Amino acid sequence: MSMKPLVQLNNVSFQYDIQENYALQDVSFEIYEGEWLAIVGHNGSGKSTLAKLLNGLQYPQEGTITVDGMLLSEETVWETRRMIGMVFQNPDNQFVGTTVQDDVAFGLENNGIARDDMIERVNSSLNKVKMAQFLDQEPHHLSGGQKQRVAIAGVIALRPSVIILDEATSMLDPRGREEVLETVRELKETHNMTVISITHDLEEAAKADRIIVMNKGKLYREGTPEEIFQMDEELVKLGLDIPFPVKMSKLLKEQGISLSRHFLSEEELVAELWTSYYNK
Amino acid sequence: MMDKMIFGRYVPAQSIIHRLDPRSKLLMIFLFVCIVFIANNPATYALLVVYTFLMVSLSKVPFRFIIAGLKPVLWLVLFTMLLHLFLTKEGEIIFQAGWFKIYEEGLRQGIFISMRFFLLILMTSILTLTTTPIEITDGLESLLHPLNKVKFPVHELALMMSISLRFIPTLMQETDKIMKAQTARGVDFTSGPIKERMKAIIPLLIPLFVSSFKRAEELATAMEARGYRGGEGRTKYRQLSWGFKDTFMLLLLVLLALLLFLLRT
């Protein structure tokens, strides 16, 4: 992971017309190339507004956003949208085409890509999300997870440098969720893609490189998953649920069972427990 | 139930009619609608019938699908026929029972007009049975393209049509879900007098409308995020290809029109 900032937010504030409070207030942070950044927060913490601002669907009233050195404004918005792809929450409401291949082609058509190039990109991106055998399938015959993978294919066909998952797994069953996250993880590995996942699922966030906690429109805390989960009760107060393995390690420690550290995944915790007797 | 109404239309098969360019099919239908009116005697009508049945057999669509498609309009055809039979008062009387008379011209008109009607419906069903809705949309967009010059929003219209087509099954599924939810809350959709049943539709329609508007808004955002900014500078993924068979079929129809002109009285 290089430490080159790809996206920079400087003192960004945003307020919806009809609301008194700021949806975002004086938020500044950087997103580095090739990292997986999770933005977590309770409903109304401003995390979804953040996604809209990054994609130029809304503009900040104060402060600036720069993407790859380019200031995000009405003039640069289309260029920015090509660089930052977005996958939304509802699998159905972002499926534009009548079939899988039409949907993947939609973004390419919008950007005026030549047809020969388009066919190649549709096929290769569907291959990458393992949906190539569903080329002519209609959306109502696909599961939620499959639809989200098609949405991802539609995004990567445009070869963006950043992909934003805006609660993209929250409407899926556990299997669909794992499918989608696995797909994104592979893409990140193989294409050095930068991933921003906006979520309230801390289990998902636990696998990120870095977490940003939002609360009431402000950046509340920033750190690695290990650092963030040290907050324990504080997270619960913010309306977030601590992942089970983290909770478990804490309870075990309280019972006097010494563990080497806080564990973020169930496998790690189990491995520590069943080997603990020998390691003593 | 509703599934069959719309999706039962297209019958996949490998026939020459299926493989025709949707543009040539649309043009043929348009032309056919015009030339049906040239026919005015038994010989010309016989020719039209032969042509239509040739098309039906070329399409390789099983007969029961065609019958199923014709059923709802058959009453209309019958009604037109009877109307002409009873109301035309020209030519010799060929049947009389008290005040009730049927004239020769009435019988002639009745048969011809209902035949015309029948053939038109048959031909349009062949179009919808052999062409997917999205192909029809693509064909229309391409045919209407020249209207762009007079600022007619062809691309927008085609996009609207294709999005509607894409969302029909989604909304059907949703209707089904809401129906079940409301049934669980005691709404009765299937029995009772018509008035009660109409009232029962309201708790179905309102949630459906609310969610559709929400869908529309989210879809618009998603489209914008994927770089949609109207038809300008857009390329097309789907491509239509006009082949020899399209020209041939169209010429066949022109030939039919010429023959009809020669044979009419």
Automatic annotation (TrEMBL), chain B:
The keyword Cell membrane appears for this protein: yes
Transmembrane segments: 26-53, 65-87, 117-134, 244-263
UniProt-annotated location(s): Cell membrane
Predominant localisation class: membrane
Claim: Repeat is one of the keywords in the record: no
Alphabetical keyword list: Cell membrane, Membrane, Transmembrane, Transmembrane helix, Transport
Membrane topology qualifier: Multi-pass membrane protein
Quaternary structure note: Forms a stable energy-coupling factor (ECF) transporter complex composed of 2 membrane-embedded substrate-binding proteins (S component), 2 ATP-binding proteins (A component) and 2 transmembrane proteins (T component).
Family recorded in the similarity comment: Belongs to the energy-coupling factor EcfT family.
Protein name: Energy-coupling factor transporter transmembrane protein EcfT
Organism encoding this protein: Cytobacillus citreus
